[in-house]
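User: Before I run my own analysis I want an independent prediction to cross-check against. Here's the chain; please return only the structure tokens and, at the end, one sentence I can use as a sanity check.
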Amino acid sequence: MNVQIFIPCFVDQLYPETAFNMVKVLDKAGCKVSYNTNQTCCGQPAFNAGFWDESKAVCSKFLKDFNGSDYVVAPSASCTGFVRNYYSKLFDNSSLHNEVKDLQKRLFEFSEFMTDILKVEDVGATLNGKATYHDSCAGLRECKIKEAPRKLLSKVKGLELVEMNDVETCCGFGGTFAVKFDAISVAMADQKITNALETGAQYIISTDLSCLMHIDGVIKNKGLNLRTLHIADVLANEVK
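Assistant: Structure tokens:
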């Protein structure tokens, strides 16, 4: 199966290893992975900031970059959810309307692509320890992802997955929300971390590095013994 990958801006700049790990897992699952080096951003930051015209220009480029018939897979429910839910608003009654509809059918977040399209749950990964899973707002509410990551993690050898209290509550990141309302944002992350620690987990795992980046910042500031991991990093982990 031919698969194109979309690597979000912050993953490209801050967490490139996660992108490589996603490719590793897709390759192991039998996919022929390609990366269009012309790709940039999905347009979400500008859209969320209210700059819809500027966002539309970036989104138009995104449509061009991923034109074709291949599946497009991203290690981010946030970017995936934005394309699925808001491109239609930007391109309603435009000449690109049909292209938007087509791409929305082909674009998938990594974990849901593994379970729903490839029908793969066990990739032979190993991670010894106890972990809890964080449902990102975008993954849960915009992409309707709930079971896919848990199915994949349940097959990881040596990993005990435990649910934390208020698992569906926001971590407090929310993009520029974390900057504009930093006190509220940090308090929300602190509560999320408290809930995770109460499970005895060593790891917090999610589909979204934006959430994990925010949570990890608070963890490090407090000097806590807790690690954040993207699900692709977990699934790419093998016995050495």
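Sanity check: The mean pLDDT is 94.
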